[in-house]
Each structure stands twice: as C-alpha cells, then as structure tokens.
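Request: Mind sharing a record?
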Amino acid sequence: MPAEFSPEDDGRTCLQGRLVREVIDRGSKSERLALRLELEDGEKVLLRRQGGHPIRDPVLEALEGQVLRVSGQQRDGYFFVQDICRLDDQNQ
C-alpha cells in the first residue's frame, strides 16, 4: 500500500490504507471517536465524506476495518473524500 499522496489528473489526491476508529482530540471538549485512514507508514488521516455528516457518517462506519482507496482533497485537518473503493486484502 503506498502511503504517499499521489495527484490525480482532475486535481484530486488518492490515498490507500485501512479504516480504523479511534479517539481523537483526547482531553479536549472535542474528544470523540473518529474514523481515520491508517496508511502503510503509520500516518493516520481523518476522513470526511462528501455529503456525509462530519461527526458520524454511517457510510464510513460500515467500512471500518476495511482496506480502502479514497480520492478527494486534503483540507485543513482532514481529508475530504469524494470517491471510495474497497480493496481485497489479497491484492495488497
């Protein structure tokens, strides 16, 4: 799984990794469980799906634990997902 951001022709970026749920902003008023894409190098990227609720998105929650390829745009503090593709673990 490549961990680096790779530009697409339409200006979007593609990321690949496993979707994990964990506590973010621990100890602050914003502390919550969130879904992050864990890249091969261990970096974790907070995801927000286009058209989805920023805090609780049932579409992303259903994909927890799966290996995904997502495309979209890096924003301040999160990755704005426009397309999601599930990948078979055997293709890694």
Q: What stands out?
A: The two ends are 6 Å apart (CA to CA). Residues 58-61 form the longest helix (4 residues). Residues 54 and 81 are 11 Å apart (CA to CA).
